[in-house]
């Protein structure tokens, strides 16, 4: 992917943008801020993480480990860096919905700004402005930045790392910049583990191609970067290993260690789909890769689940990258010397897009649509630089290269209409508007080809508007509508209510896709509120666990408060995070969600429960508090979420649902069932309260 000098105009020292460019950047950042901020004070986002934020604010140990419960029994199933920011926000603004989600807004806007500064150094001001606008209007980016999943911080960190890599290519002080890039990727690792490392092949290739240093200096710089990367990525992991017991169990692991989580369920399992890679996590539930993002394969990014999230400009990106590759090969054969910095930029952003796109397309494990937000910065950079180059060719007399701009417009608008046409019951006018603007843009571009520059510029503006019309509309509807997609904040998605959800969506009746309201392989339907209460627009508000306590749940809380005495753990809820989140968020009780996210972790173990009971630390246990029974279906197995799919072991405890079964049996043996009449509960409720004091 070798570019030639003049393909795009990089920033030079002292080359400050005019006022209109600075205002345009401010406008893009303001647009992102509005889309991210609108109505965030009315939702907890992903209740799993929101509950953890409250728990983490209780003690340093809970904060450091990212504990789901204040007692420090089990952590969330990710490293805690993204949650650390949310805890700091809660310390400033108090524990409320706005405080939990506000850091996401800051990180999202910062990513738009940093992408502009990065692309500007490589491709010039106009390309940078387009890139920032594309990122600000990417539907899945808007939806995930209104949520409190860790992907928002991850995107900011890798964009910041790309800026440092761009400086490392052009600056004589390359060692410091490449070390900074490695440190930022390490921070990304502590946000979402190995997913942050996906950018490394593109970063390394870009430095090797673009740096003017000798091979000895390059090798030394990369060795320094490798050392910084390893320290930055693993210091927290090592600290959790060295922390004296008792300490929180690392949620989602099979042995309670962060090492297992990194290389198992949240590592290679996501790509290879082996064992624990197909189990839980926020929104993971039964699903595997196919359950949330469709069948793995070369066309996955264009399927019903993902097309409306990120694919809008991918055909244009393909046209740009193929064009630049062909151009580069021709000049290489002609003996032309490539411009190192420009080439490095194409390698960095093109490599980022291709490597991560391929990884996501063929991932066999749990693959949520919102993961694709990591592609958005590369899409923006490639589109920005590509359109600037196409414009330059368009304005040059002679040749056929001028056709690339109208061709790019045509294929982009055609694809947008094709995506909209998949569900013509949901705002079909967006597709018609895009087509109308696209046709008008093509006419003006053809007329302005040899006419006045002002006419041609008007055509370019119309073309850009046409290409961004549908994604911009989907982003705005997702923001203003307040929806966060299937399973609330656990699986945010943009677009119409389809079989896999959209803003305010999930399936049309709120059921898990492909399950007809039932858990595969189990009798009975999902427990009410198992994946969140209904929110605005028919969506699920608050993520796992819902946003508020029901009347019966409040009666249980009142009874526990009155009778738990001084127990360190007044209430433990079986059923995982979905059962416990509402209790943690809406009460001041030290509630423990047994079993981690899906209830399958061996935390607390039966031995730990026995010790709590003997020492008087355990007050009550609530069974049937959430969908934890999902992981106990048929010998500790759960179906993978596809109709007729084979069963796979869920993560946690190394024994799947057996750990939950053992806990439940222990409770029934060791504790006393409380008569619902004692607290005014319903006698036909699936929930059973046991006194263990």
UniProtKB/TrEMBL annotation:
Question: GO CC: one term?
Answer: plasma membrane
Localization in the cell: Cell membrane
Please note every region of biased composition (Gly residues): 642-657
Q: Which keywords does this Swiss-Prot/TrEMBL entry list?
A: Cell membrane, Glycosyltransferase, Membrane, Transferase, Transmembrane, Transmembrane helix
Q: Where is this region: Disordered?
A: 490-516, 642-662
Describe the location of the Putative mannosyltransferase YkcA/B-like C-terminal domain by residue ranges.
557-626
The processes (GO biological process) annotated in the record are:
lipopolysaccharide biosynthetic process; response to iron(III) ion
Chain segments annotated as transmembrane: 21-40, 92-115, 127-146, 197-215, 222-239, 310-330, 342-363, 369-390, 402-420, 426-447, 459-477
PANTHER family linked to this entry: MANNOSYLTRANSFERASE YKCB-RELATED (PTHR33908), UNDECAPRENYL PHOSPHATE-ALPHA-4-AMINO-4-DEOXY-L-ARABINOSE ARABINOSYL TRANSFERASE (PTHR33908:SF3)
Name assigned to this protein: Uncharacterized protein
Source organism of this protein record: Saccharopolyspora aridisoli
Q: Which taxonomic lineage is given here? A: Bacteria, Bacillati, Actinomycetota, Actinomycetes, Pseudonocardiales
């Amino acid at each position: 992917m070798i570019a030639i000098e003049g393909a795009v105009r990089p920033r030079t020292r002292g080359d400050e943008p005019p006022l209109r460019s600075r205002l345009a950047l401010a406008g893009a950042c303001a647009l992102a801020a509005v889309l991210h901020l609108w109505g965030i004070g009315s939702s907890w986002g992903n209740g799993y993480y929101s509950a953890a934020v409250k728990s983490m604010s209780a003690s340093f140990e809970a904060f450091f480990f990212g504990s789901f419960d204040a007692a420090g029994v089990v952590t969330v199933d990710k490293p805690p860096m993204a949650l650390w920011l949310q805890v700091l926000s809660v310390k400033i603004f108090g524990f409320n919905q706005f405080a939990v989600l506000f850091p996401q807004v800051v990180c999202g806007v910062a990513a738009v700004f940093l992408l502009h500064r990065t692309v500007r150094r490589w491709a010039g001001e106009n390309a940078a402005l387009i890139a920032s606008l594309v990122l600000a209007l990417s539907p899945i980016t808007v939806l995930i930045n209104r949520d409190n999943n860790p992907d928002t911080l991850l995107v900011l960190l890798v964009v910041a790392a790309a800026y440092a890599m761009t400086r490392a290519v052009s600056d004589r002080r390359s060692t410091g910049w490449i070390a900074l890039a490695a440190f930022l990727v390490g921070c990304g690792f502590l946000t979402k583990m190995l997913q942050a490392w996906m950018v490394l092949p593109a970063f390394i290739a870009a430095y090797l191609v673009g740096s003017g240093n000798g091979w000895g200096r390059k090798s030394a710089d990369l060795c320094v970067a490798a050392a910084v990367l390893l320290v930055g990525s693993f210091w927290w992991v090592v600290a959790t290993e060295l922390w004296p017991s008792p300490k929180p169990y690392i949620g989602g692991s099979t042995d309670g260690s962060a090492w297992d989580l990194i290389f198992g369920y949240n590592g290679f399992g996501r790509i290879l789909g082996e064992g624990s890679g197909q189990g839980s996590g926020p929104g993971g539930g039964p699903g595997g890769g196919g359950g949330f993002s469709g069948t793995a394969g070369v066309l996955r990014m264009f399927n019903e689940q993902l097309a409306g999230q990120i694919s809008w400009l991918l055909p244009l990106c393909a046209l740009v990258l193929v064009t630049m590759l062909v151009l580069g090969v021709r000049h290489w054969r002609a003996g032309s010397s490539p411009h190192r910095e420009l080439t490095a930029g194409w390698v960095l952003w093109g490599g980022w897009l291709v490597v991560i796109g391929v990884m996501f397309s063929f991932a066999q494990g749990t693959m949520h649509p919102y993961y694709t937000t990591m592609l958005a910065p590369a899409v923006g950079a490639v589109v920005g630089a590509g359109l600037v180059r196409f414009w330059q060719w368009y304005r040059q007399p002679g040749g056929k290269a001028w056709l690339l701009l109208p061709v790019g417009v045509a294929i982009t608008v055609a694809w947008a209409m094709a995506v909209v046409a998949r569900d013509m019951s949901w705002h079909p006018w967006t597709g018609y508007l895009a087509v109308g603007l696209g046709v008008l843009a093509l006419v003006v571009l053809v007329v302005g080809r040899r006419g006045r520059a002002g006419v041609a510029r008007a055509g370019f503006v119309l073309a850009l508007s046409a290409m961004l019309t549908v994604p911009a509309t989907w982003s705005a509807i997702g923001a203003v509508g307040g929806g966060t997609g299937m399973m609330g904040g656990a699986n945010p998605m943009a677009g119409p209510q389809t079989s896999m959800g959209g803003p305010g969506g999930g399936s049309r009746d709120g059921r898990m896709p492909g399950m007809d309201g039932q858990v595969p392989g189990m009798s009975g339907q999902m427990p009410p509120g198992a994946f969140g209460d209904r929110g605005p627009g028919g969506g699920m508000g608050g993520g796992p666990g819902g946003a508020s306590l029901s009347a019966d749940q409040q009666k249980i809380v009142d009874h526990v408060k009155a009778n738990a005495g001084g127990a360190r753990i007044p209430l433990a809820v079986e059923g995982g995070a979905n059962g416990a989140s509402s209790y943690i968020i809406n009460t001041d009780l030290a509630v423990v969600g047994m079993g981690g996210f899906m209830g399958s972790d061996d935390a607390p173990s039966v031995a730990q429960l026995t010790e709590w009971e003997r020492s008087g630390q355990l007050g009550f246990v609530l069974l049937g508090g959430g969908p934890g029974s999902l992981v106990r279906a048929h010998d500790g197995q759960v179906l993978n979420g596809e109709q007729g799919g084979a069963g796979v072991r869920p993560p946690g405890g190394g024994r799947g649902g057996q750990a939950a079964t053992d806990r439940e049996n222990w409770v029934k043996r060791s504790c006393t069932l409380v008569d619902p009449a004692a607290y005014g509960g319903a006698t036909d409720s699936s929930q059973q309260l046991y006194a263990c004091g």
